Amino acid sequence: MKRIEVWADMVCAWAYIGKRRLEKAGFGEDVEIVWRPFQIDPMAPATAEPLEEALRDPVAEGALRACNPDLTPAENRARVSRVAAGEGLGPRWGAAWRSNTFDAHRVVALALERGGVALQDAVVERIMRAHFAEAADIGDRATLVALATEAGLEGMAEALDAGEGTAEVRSQLLRGKAVGVATSPTFVVGGTAVAGAQPPEVLEDLLRRAVPERELPDEVRLLRQAESLLEVRDPLGALQTLEPLLAGHGDDPAVRLLAARAYFGSAQLNRAKETLESLLERSPGDHYARFLLGRTLERANRHAEALPHLRLAAAMSPEPGYTDALHRVESQVP
Q1: What is 218-330's CATH number?
Q2: CA distances for 78 relative to 13, 49, 69, 299, angstroms
Q3: Domain 2-209 has what CATH class?
Q4: pLDDT 10s per residue in the chain (334 long)?
Q5: Which residue among 73, 149, 169, 228 is buried most deeply as judged by most CB within 10 Å?
């Protein structure tokens, strides 16, 4: 069975429009649609505020402007209203609240876990309709519980209070970032993605041409995800991804080196130093670990200690980055 993953935020109007277009696409019964979390406004307050009032806040306006950089939020809302009407969404249309959607994503994730894709779709539909057509605050837990119950998902009050779904949503947010999801909605099939509320024929073409993603062992998948997060400069996300590997495979050099890179990137210099020193005890000829240890010591303003490591790294591998760091540190040491 083929799977379409829809990375979307529950407060993204284009995601709701994209849902309607997805429903019009001519997919067969061997296609399942799974909703994944994305937050366009992760800094939204835990207690919702009226949207009109929130739009006076430059942070909120910036988050909404990201939906369409070429239009002001007001112009974008007017355009979205016209498109939504054309997709049969209404008659009333328009959100009333700036809501934090983390709990909503937890409910959506739990719907998939407890009832599969059909129940998840029903929950997504109910939450989006409440936000856009009923002016409901979907950041309010009591409202979310009621909406989930209407869609057929019971027990959300206890689940939310117990923290269920939190780890899954955080993990999926990191996974989305690692695979390059940067907007809502983004439709992903295997290793192929298309962003935006695309017409049905575009989504049908995506399903036809997408190359199935190769199944990988969990350890390899997590390593690659951590590497991708480092590439997009999210070292803390990389460390979160590495947590199960450090717990179960903490002696693996590849895991420890990635952790050292993440420690370095997040300015946890003592941890980076300790990890790199332990790696070099076992593999003194690892020129990259040697270089990173020198950079760690340089960043800690311990230039005299950094110098021999950078000299060794440059001698083992004459890469420009190695020699640049060496010359920089040499100029700091009498």
Answers
A1: 1.25.40.10
A2: 11, 21, 15, 50
A3: alpha beta
A4: 889 999 999 999 999 999 999 999 988 778 999 999 999 999 999 999 998 887 777 766 666 666 666 667 677 778 888 888 888 887 888 899 999 999 999 999 999 999 999 999 999 999 999 999 999 999 999 999 999 999 999 999 999 999 999 999 999 999 999 999 999 999 999 888 999 999 999 999 999 888 777 788 989 999 999 999 999 999 999 999 999 999 999 899 999 999 999 999 999 999 999 999 999 999 999 999 999 999 999 999 999 999 999 999 999 998 899 999 999 999 999 8
A5: 169
